[in-house]
Amino acid sequence: GKHVEILDAKTREKLCFLDKVEPHATIAEIKNLFTKTQGKSLKDEDVLQKLPVGTTATLYFRDLGAQISWVTVFLTEYAGPLFIYLLFYFRVPFIYGHKYDFTSSRHTVVHLACICHSFHYVKRLLETLFVHRFSHGTMPLRNIFKNCTYYWGFAAWMAYYINHPLYTPPTYGAQQVKLALAIFVICQLGNFSIHMALRDLRPAGSKTRKIPYPTKNPFTWLFLLVSCPNYTYEVGSWIGFAIMTQCLPVALFSLVGFTQMTIWAKGKHRSYLKEFRDYPPLRMPIIPFLL
Amino acid sequence: IQGWLSHEMNPSVTATVKLGQNGKESGLGGLETAEVLFQTQSLTYSKIRGKWLVLAIAMVRFYMEKGTHRGLYKSIQKTLKFFQTFALLEVRIIPTSVLVTGVQVSSRIFMVWLITHSIKPIQNEESVVLFLVAWTVTEITRYSFYTFSLLDHLPYFIKWARYNFFIILYPVGVAGELLTIYAALPYVKKTGMFSIRLPNKYNVSFDYYYFLLITMASYIPLFPQLYFHMLRQRRKVLHGEVIVEKDD
């Protein structure tokens, strides 16, 4: 057979050396051989004997760059919006005109919105500390800047309008607010139920993966229809909040969040399908029957 | 991983590898598709270059007849708008970085539709001529380069022009664009155009005047990146340097 050397196109460094390649092998087959040797990243638990290598095992070291713990990132990115929203709610000086400093809105919905928004982020913080079990310890450092800009930026943008002295309450008044609040509360409960169900799926300290199934809690019955009902409920919460406040920036935030969560849900769905032969076929990634 | 086995920074070769992969294992069929697409591509490039040439000639003629740049924008605006918008397709056709092309195309569309088209008083500013000239010369050079590259018949001076003209043209174009936006500011402030004020039932506001200020400020981080990207390309292509680039 032939020898094939694969170099990095940018740095010209040798990435891989394949010996005994059949002369009539296609590029597709060579690519396969290459990815098999590079492969997915190995896990801490993997045993050397069980790896698909020959008599000599070549391990590739990849520098992931500066890392930061997931918990730190989550706490920072969620504490920001909680605090920032309150700055606007209390109309701290230099945001609105001086005559509005420390005044309070006369609209009930504005106070309700503050409670909902704050509750949402307090819930997230508590879940990060006590509920979630993370598979990865760390993520790249630059993510904290990217994520905080996103969360903090949108929180400030939303909060500015909702707490503005010229805020206009929803067109359909109390009816609209009540409906929106119901959606919001149901979705918050749903989201929390899913987080608890996922936690119970995995014993403390372990990294085992299992298919999530509905439990006695009715909120978890959404598992029958979607792989990531936590994301479904999260989108629902924000839609509720958007209807409640009738604020376009909230709607945009929901849309962007939905887009990102759909990408994550599709990824998770795909890896479930790959890992489990008996994965329930009815399930969609994030929206029942649709997406 | 598109074209990861390409061996040179040559648009024609990259194009071959990409098409070969998309054609899957269709052997001869794949090759035919590749050739048809080649011809379409090179035809498209020369058509686009032709249009920019037409624009350039129109501009020169206008100036020679009228002796002034006033009214120049008005006379060429239809053509300009047509293929600046048409340039959106470019992002898919041209095998360069999507981000770089994307930034360039969106800033052009922004200038044409949101500034010069919408703010009539600034159409006669000298700064408009400045960026029009910069764009025209740049595009003619660039599309000539693509056309000839695809036909594997690239005269050195076109490659030289493509990788040297920008050194002057980029800053000139940017200066023209910035001066034009700056000239538009008083008009925007006075008319409050493209802006939404509070209170309104969607609880949102937008101030076009501040948006323009932010846009002008964004040239500060963006323009050097584009400029240095082209400088690096230049060193690679003209002087054969191997440059290790950060991931896009």
From TrEMBL, chain A:
<keyword id="KW-0560">Oxidoreductase</keyword>
<feature type="domain" description="3-oxo-5-alpha-steroid 4-dehydrogenase C-terminal">
    <location>
        <begin position="138"/>
        <end position="291"/>
    </location>
</feature>
<dbReference type="GO" id="GO:0016627">
    <property type="term" value="F:oxidoreductase activity, acting on the CH-CH group of donors"/>
</dbReference>
<feature type="transmembrane region" description="Helical">
    <location>
        <begin position="239"/>
        <end position="264"/>
    </location>
</feature>
<keyword id="KW-0812">Transmembrane</keyword>
<feature type="transmembrane region" description="Helical">
    <location>
        <begin position="179"/>
        <end position="198"/>
    </location>
</feature>
<keyword id="KW-0256">Endoplasmic reticulum</keyword>
<dbReference type="InterPro" id="IPR001104">
    <property type="entry name" value="3-oxo-5_a-steroid_4-DH_C"/>
</dbReference>
<comment type="similarity">
    <text>Belongs to the steroid 5-alpha reductase family.</text>
</comment>
<dbReference type="GO" id="GO:0005783">
    <property type="term" value="C:endoplasmic reticulum"/>
</dbReference>
<dbReference type="GO" id="GO:0042761">
    <property type="term" value="P:very long-chain fatty acid biosynthetic process"/>
</dbReference>
<dbReference type="Pfam" id="PF02544">
    <property type="entry name" value="Steroid_dh"/>
</dbReference>
<protein>
    <submittedName>
        <fullName>Trans-2,3-enoyl-CoA reductase</fullName>
    </submittedName>
</protein>
<keyword id="KW-1133">Transmembrane helix</keyword>
<dbReference type="InterPro" id="IPR039357">
    <property type="entry name" value="SRD5A/TECR"/>
</dbReference>
<dbReference type="Pfam" id="PF21696">
    <property type="entry name" value="TECR_N"/>
</dbReference>
<feature type="transmembrane region" description="Helical">
    <location>
        <begin position="68"/>
        <end position="90"/>
    </location>
</feature>
<feature type="transmembrane region" description="Helical">
    <location>
        <begin position="149"/>
        <end position="167"/>
    </location>
</feature>
<keyword id="KW-0472">Membrane</keyword>
<feature type="domain" description="TECR-like N-terminal">
    <location>
        <begin position="3"/>
        <end position="63"/>
    </location>
</feature>
<dbReference type="InterPro" id="IPR049127">
    <property type="entry name" value="TECR-like_N"/>
</dbReference>
<dbReference type="GO" id="GO:0016020">
    <property type="term" value="C:membrane"/>
</dbReference>
From TrEMBL, chain B:
<dbReference type="GO" id="GO:0042761">
    <property type="term" value="P:very long-chain fatty acid biosynthetic process"/>
</dbReference>
<comment type="similarity">
    <text>Belongs to the very long-chain fatty acids dehydratase HACD family.</text>
</comment>
<feature type="transmembrane region" description="Helical">
    <location>
        <begin position="208"/>
        <end position="228"/>
    </location>
</feature>
<comment type="pathway">
    <text>Lipid metabolism; fatty acid biosynthesis.</text>
</comment>
<keyword id="KW-0276">Fatty acid metabolism</keyword>
<keyword id="KW-0256">Endoplasmic reticulum</keyword>
<keyword id="KW-0472">Membrane</keyword>
<protein>
    <recommendedName>
        <fullName>Very-long-chain (3R)-3-hydroxyacyl-CoA dehydratase</fullName>
        <ecNumber>4.2.1.134</ecNumber>
    </recommendedName>
</protein>
<dbReference type="GO" id="GO:0030148">
    <property type="term" value="P:sphingolipid biosynthetic process"/>
</dbReference>
<keyword id="KW-0812">Transmembrane</keyword>
<dbReference type="GO" id="GO:0102158">
    <property type="term" value="F:very-long-chain (3R)-3-hydroxyacyl-CoA dehydratase activity"/>
</dbReference>
<dbReference type="Pfam" id="PF04387">
    <property type="entry name" value="PTPLA"/>
</dbReference>
<dbReference type="InterPro" id="IPR007482">
    <property type="entry name" value="Tyr_Pase-like_PTPLA"/>
</dbReference>
<dbReference type="GO" id="GO:0005789">
    <property type="term" value="C:endoplasmic reticulum membrane"/>
</dbReference>
<keyword id="KW-0275">Fatty acid biosynthesis</keyword>
<keyword id="KW-1133">Transmembrane helix</keyword>
<dbReference type="GO" id="GO:0030497">
    <property type="term" value="P:fatty acid elongation"/>
</dbReference>
<keyword id="KW-0456">Lyase</keyword>
<keyword id="KW-0444">Lipid biosynthesis</keyword>
<keyword id="KW-0443">Lipid metabolism</keyword>
<comment type="function">
    <text>Catalyzes the third of the four reactions of the long-chain fatty acids elongation cycle. This endoplasmic reticulum-bound enzymatic process, allows the addition of two carbons to the chain of long- and very long-chain fatty acids/VLCFAs per cycle. This enzyme catalyzes the dehydration of the 3-hydroxyacyl-CoA intermediate into trans-2,3-enoyl-CoA, within each cycle of fatty acid elongation. Thereby, it participates to the production of VLCFAs of different chain lengths that are involved in multiple biological processes as precursors of membrane lipids and lipid mediators.</text>
</comment>
<feature type="transmembrane region" description="Helical">
    <location>
        <begin position="163"/>
        <end position="188"/>
    </location>
</feature>
